[in-house]
Write a structure and sequence with these properties.
It contains twelve helices and eleven strands. With 345 residues, the chain is an alpha/beta fold. The protein starts with a strand and ends in a 7-residue tail after the last helix.
Length: 345
């Protein structure tokens, strides 16, 4: 178990150079108003993302606009639950750049031709940040929450979002399930654990950020959340602590430029900027684990002893069908028994 600070995950990769990003901006295409990203007129990019990195993106936009590539680029921004945002773009919401909590929300757009099939063919596999699933507690950890087993105690009120709108909720649930498998339990026993844990959940908001607000507003004893959300809350002065269980799940967050981007070249320049050391440091400052090796000291984000990935559980395609199918999924059945909606918004 790791309590409190942050770590760096080693990924064999070399940071993309600012020079390459600037080169893209030089050939920026025009918007409907006839403007370019590198000339004297203004390009507007539509950014659509999941809720938790909003503060980081606001800082990154300001920094990008100070570079030659971003000098004349403006942004519209939309944040919300990852699944809701993905479905909105799929239904016609304008987006030049999309960032989601989990890969299946990107896959939806790939399947419908709104994101290119090769979106993940860079050295980072299309991911711009990492995190891990953590357990956020009240300051001083008065309920002595140390591991997943504590979340089924009768005296513990758990907060986690609704997995049928929130990507973070799906990471949370699969972290809890995978931790049981890592400890030697059978799939049936791990499923029974999920049922017991979810019976202790009193509030299921539609996004990870909304769940954090519920928790910091005074509801619940423990919040299952991204490590970066815990760090964000601490920096905001919230009276919370957090625990990273020994067995927990690596969170990988995808981003891409859409195929129908109105300003594709400035959007590509923006995406490449996010892999620069400066941008990755901004993500790290906001509690995210950088995907670019060497951004932060290796001891800043210690690796949990039993860290596992979604591939260890079969990958998102298999996991989504088994656990989150609204008709036959394991979690859908548990939630329906609790009277929780499994209808996607």
């Amino acid at each position: 178990m790791y309590m409190g600070n942050r770590w760096s995950r080693g990924r064999a990769a070399v940071a993309l150079s600012l020079t390459a990003m600037l080169g893209l901006s030089a050939c920026a295409s025009t918007t409907a108003g006839g403007s370019t990203g590198g000339g004297g007129n203004t390009v507007t990019l539509s950014l659509v993302a999941y809720s938790t990195p909003q503060t980081a993106y606001e800082q990154l936009i300001t920094a990008f606009q100070q570079t030659p590539a971003g000098k004349n680029v403006r942004f519209t921004q939309s944040y919300g639950a990852s699944g809701d945002q993905s479905r909105a773009v799929d239904s016609g919401l304008n987006a030049d750049y999309v960032a989601f909590s989990l890969e299946t929300d990107m896959t939806r757009l790939v399947d419908d031709g709104k994101v290119a099939k090769n979106w993940d063919q860079n050295q980072y596999h299309g991911m711009v940040t990492d995190s891990v699933v953590s357990l956020v507690t009240r300051k001083g950890n008065p309920k002595h929450i140390t591991d997943w087993s504590d979340l089924t105690r009768k005296d513990v009120d758990v907060i986690t979002p609704n997995p049928f709108s929130s990507g973070s909720a799906r990471w949370n649930i699969m972290a809890a399930y995978g931790a049981q498998i890592k400890s030697g339990k059978s799939p049936a026993q791990a499923t029974a654990y999920l049922k017991a844990m979810l019976s202790n959940v009193s509030v299921q908001d539609d996004s990870g950020r909304a769940a954090l607000q519920t928790f910091t507003g005074g509801k619940g004893d423990v919040l299952i959340s991204y490590e970066n959300e815990a760090i964000f809350a601490q920096k905001k002065g919230e009276q919370i602590d957090y625990v990273i269980p020994d067995d927990t799940l690596l969170i990988e967050n995808p981003a891409a430029v859409t195929t129908n981007a109105k300003a594709p070249e400035p959007a590509k320049a923006w995406l490449q900027y996010l892999y620069t050391p400066e941008a990755q440091q901004t993500f790290a400052d906001n509690g995210y684990r950088p995907v670019v090796e060497g951004t932060v000291p290796k001891d800043q984000f210690p690796t949990p002893r039993g860290l596992f990935t979604i591939k260890d559980l079969g990958g998102w395609d298999s996991v989504t069908k088994t656990f989150f199918d609204t008709a036959t999924g394991v979690i859908a059945g548990i939630e329906k028994d609790k009277g929780v909606s499994v209808e996607k918004k």
